[in-house]
Specification:
The chain is an alpha+beta fold. The chain contains 13 helices and 53 strands. The strands form 15 sheets. Strands 2, 4, 5, 8, 9 and 10 form a six-stranded mixed beta sheet that branches.
Length: about 900
């Protein structure tokens, strides 16, 4: 029965004017032929529907009219019309009306409107690019009504032939210069004129413009450029020329690349070398002139070879060493030091550093029978080691180990055989006297003394420094499986100087080596060495697990996790490896713009861009159901492109159900950034992150001022509950303050979402005109914060240096460096900036004359740690920004 009803309904819907269900059309639109510009009216009436919604259709699409009128012809009998005041060619087509009733659609008869007027051009003539005196065709088509339609061509304003039936094709035997053309279409109502086209003569392209180096990674350089005037012909390829200047010029083989895209990656370049490059592009006619030369320098790398010709002279009083200098191409960077590694009795000793390729060290006797190797080091790291040399006492000849390895091998073999034979002899003597419980040895007296030998011995104090794995940690299987594929062996990390310290650990600059021997500068978060709780370790690794899944340009991304094995400790120290943020944290950067030795201006457009970057990053985190809970300028980092990345997820929580997280324990939290409801009930949502974003906007507009100046941490809740909020900063526009003020609504649902904030800030950013760049370059160096407990990790500062100072930055002492006592002793590093990437533990830099520099001193007197009292860099702040909240 249902199937029968469905078939009847379908039939009724397909029959125009059907009377199914009592609905039928009493008036249908009629065919009309009208002249262009006249008025047209179509009528339609339907009966059997109460207050129907009659819809007009044209060529299968709905017509939307704001002046449609319905007239009542009787009970359930309605009429409507559709009119066009001034008909045009595009109004021609098929019209009808439809009405819906009980889920069925009823349609009237179709009617055609035909518009008569001047011809309508349906195929406009297009521009042509051709070679001189080469034949080509031009096309033009037009329609009526009324028909027929004829077409006349005009080339350079001169008619070509006579009128032809539309559509028309004009064959041109060729031209030798650029010329204009168009077509005229004529019927009984008048003449229409097409667009004016141009015949272009193909020529050589112009030189490319905007050639620049987009990215330099190790020995790979990415170039990009824009094609200039293409000569009215598509660019098919471009030629890249590269020249290396190192005392003399070396022209490398030129490379041809297909375009688009207009970009290319140069590979296989030498490290720490000056290069120049230029580009020429090719079209059908030929190559363009070359663009101007663009110069660049590839980054430093570790030396490619070991120092050669190592020789030594040794006596009781002194050890003298000498080796050959490395060539510039072998060094692959600026020489920082030569590192001497020596082994005595099979135990590695503390390395030594030398500034020159020779040295005299007092106390030569301690090096007797030691194996000595030397490597050259740049700021990136140290190169391969020289062949080991055995330092024999003066009575024996000093022989280089590679030439005497057989002699040394025989000596050690004989010694080993003697020891093994002695042990076997002792074991054979004891075996005859073994008892069930031990070994009895006959003593000089009448009674035997019994000694017991354990079947298996072990010591809890034995140091096991094998590579640590996640299995050595007491963490959940889920967390272990999530971090397994990002675990980095500790041997690939070389830790450098400390960037910042926090309550639970520190952030260090480091160098990460990959399996292909390439290096990458990174930042490493290291848990404090005195933290032994597996709970603290798991919390640190959970933060890393959050970051593993982040893929957004404004959110910092995890590179990997490593484990530092400690002597005499059961658990290793977890290290979270992150991208190195060249310009440090946003709060320090803002402070330096006002309070540095050389303050600099930040345009409003730059400040709004900072806000927009943070909003986009937080929009992404909220879409991943991540609540940050510690959003502030200090936890936002600036990368090399001055883009802001949201970082520091130590307090972050993932929301698996619902839309809030309740803090259920005692926590140390930044109260001046916490939302009102979080202070009251310890409830955290994405809306509470929006509150913190508003405070962060205030920090940005005030260039790093502390929020709520003059209000104590203990007074914040009472201050806010009264309706008080942060005041509008000086020179802050009303529309910007309005955005941040809406973030502080006492009702969380009334605050804007991060998506809305990103949209508003993006629109605001577009209204700001770009400003001229800073005339002076920025050199960003480490900023020493005060010793408060709430020092934030990764506090890297900035300082403006003039052009003349930039060239000396690597050798001159700089202020705001960390004091020696601020450095942890787990990885003791030299204070010199250039020596931070040298692997290994060492305490001294030894001059050629044998003098020993003091601990913490750099490679030269200019590298001494700067005085921390060179000027205030921080405003007076509350005693601490955090307070312990008890639940």
């Amino acid at each position: 029965m249902k199937l029968l009803l469905w078939i009847i309904a379908v039939v009724l819907r397909t029959l125009p004017g059907s009377c199914g269900s009592g609905v039928h059309f009493t008036k249908h639109p009629s065919n009309q032929t009208v002249s262009q510009g006249n008025e047209v009216r179509l009528g339609c009436a339907v009966e059997g529907v109460t207050e129907p919604d009659i819809i007009w259709m044209k060529d299968g699409k709905k017509l939307y009219s704001t002046d449609q009128v319905f007239l009542t012809l009787g009970e359930q009998h309605w009429e409507t019309s559709h009119s066009v005041k001034s008909i045009r060619q595009q109004d021609a087509g098929q019209y009808w009306c439809e009405v819906e009733f009980h889920g069925l659609t009823f349609s009237s008869d179709r009617a055609w409107i035909t518009v008569e007027g001047v011809p309508h051009i349906i195929q406009e003539p297009q521009d042509v690019a051709t070679f001189p005196n080469t034949p080509f065709n031009l096309y033009c088509a037009a329609v009526g009504p009324p028909d027929p339609v004829e077409v006349l061509w005009k080339l350079g304003g001169v008619p070509e032939g006579g009128y032809q039936q539309s559509p028309s094709v004009l064959h041109v035997p060729g031209v030798n210069s650029s010329i204009k053309f168009y077509c005229e279409a004529k019927n009984s109502r008048g003449v229409s004129v097409s667009r004016t086209g141009t015949v272009h003569i193909k020529v050589l392209p112009a030189a490319p413009v905007g050639l620049q180096v987009r990215r330099i990674t190790d020995n790979n350089v990415t170039l990009s450029w824009n094609p200039g005037f293409m000569g009215h012909s598509e660019i098919s390829s471009c030629v890249i020329q590269v020249m290396r200047t190192s005392g003399r010029r070396w022209n490398l083989p030129q490379q041809e690349v297909r375009v688009p895209p207009h970009a290319h990656n140069l590979t296989g370049l030498r490290s720490y070398s000056n290069y120049s490059t230029r580009v020429s592009c090719v079209n059908e006619v030929g190559p363009s002139p070359f663009s101007p030369w663009v110069s660049f320098i590839t980054p430093e790398s570790v030396p490619s070879v070991a120092p050669k010709n190592l020789s030594l002279e040794i006596s009781e009083e002194q050890l003298s060493l000498r080796w050959a200098r490395l060539k510039e191409d072998e060094l692959q960077g600026k020489l920082v030091a030569y590192k001497l590694q020596w082994t005595h009795g099979g135990e590695p000793q503390e390395p030594l550093l030398f500034k020159e390729n020779s040295a005299q060290i007092s106390g030569g006797a301690r090096f007797f029978n030691a194996s000595i190797q030397v490597a050259a080091c740049t700021s990136v790291g140290c190169g391969p080691w020289s062949p080991p040399m055995l330092a024999l006492p003066p009575s024996g000849p000093q022989v280089q180990e590679p030439r005497s390895h057989m002699t040394v091998g025989l000596l050690f073999g004989f010694l080993g055989a003697t020891i093994v034979g002695f042990l076997l002899t002792v074991a054979a003597q004891r075996r005859g006297k073994e008892t069930k419980f031990g070994s009895a040895f006959k003593g000089p007296g009448p009674e035997s003394s019994v000694f017991f030998t354990a079947a298996r011995s072990f010591s809890r104090n034995v140091t096991d420094l094998h590579e640590s794995t996640l299995d050595s940690l007491c963490i959940s299987s889920e967390l272990k499986n999530k971090l397994q594929d990002v675990l980095i062996p500790e041997r690939l990390l070389t830790l450098g100087h400390m960037l910042g310290k926090g309550e639970f650990g520190s952030v260090r600059e480091a160098v990460l080596k990959s399996d292909d021997s390439s290096v990458q500068k990174v930042a490493v978060k290291v848990l404090k060495s005195d933290v032994t709780s597996s709970g603290d370790i798991e919390q640190c690794l959970k933060e890393a697990a959050y970051m593993k899944d982040f893929h957004h340009p404004n959110v910092i991304k995890l590179i990997g996790v490593s484990l530092h094995r400690r002597p005499n400790q059961r658990l290793p120290i977890p290290m979270v490896v992150l991208p190195f943020m060249k310009h440090g944290d946003l709060h320090t950067f803002l402070l330096l713009s006002r309070l540095g030795d050389e303050p600099f201006d930040l345009s409003l457009q730059s400040l709004v861009q900072f806000m927009l970057d943070i909003a986009r990053g937080m929009e992404y985190l909220s879409s991943k159901n991540i609540i940050h809970r510690d959003l502030a300028a200090r936890n936002c980092m600036l990368n090399e492109n001055m883009s802001v990345c949201v970082a520091d997820f130590g307090l972050s929580k993932k929301i698996y159900s619902g839309d809030y997280y309740r803090q259920g324990s005692v926590s140390k939290l930044p109260v001046k950034w916490i939302a009102l409801e979080s202070l009251a009930d310890n409830v955290y949502t994405t809306q509470s992150d929006v509150w913190a974003f508003g405070v962060t906007m205030w920090e940005i507009m005030t260039r790093g001022q502390t929020p709520y100046p003059g209000v104590e941490n203990s007074e914040i809740y009472e201050f806010l509950i009264k309706g008080e909020r942060l005041k509008k900063p000086a020179d802050c526009r009303e529309d910007i303050y309005e955005i941040m003020h809406r973030c502080w609504s006492p009702v969380p649902k009334c605050r804007p979402s991060f998506q809305q904030l990103a949209t508003q800030l993006e629109a605001l950013h577009l209204t700001l005109s770009p400003t001229a760049p800073l005339k002076e370059p920025l050199l960003y160096i480490n900023l020493e914060g005060d010793n408060r407990e709430d020092d934030r990790e990764g506090a890297v500062g900035a300082r403006i240096l003039g052009p003349e100072a930039t060239a000396e930055a690597s050798s001159c002492g700089v202020p705001w460096q960390r004091r020696p006592e601020d450095e942890e002793t787990d990885w003791l590093m030299v204070g010199s900036r250039d020596a931070r990437a040298i692997a290994g533990d060492y305490r001294y830099i030894i001059a050629p004359c044998g003098a020993i520099a003091e601990e913490g001193e750099g490679l030269g007197s200019s590298d001494r740690r700067g005085d921390l009292g060179n000027g205030p860099l921080h405003e007076t702040r509350d005693e601490e920004d955090d307070v312990v909240i008890n639940v």
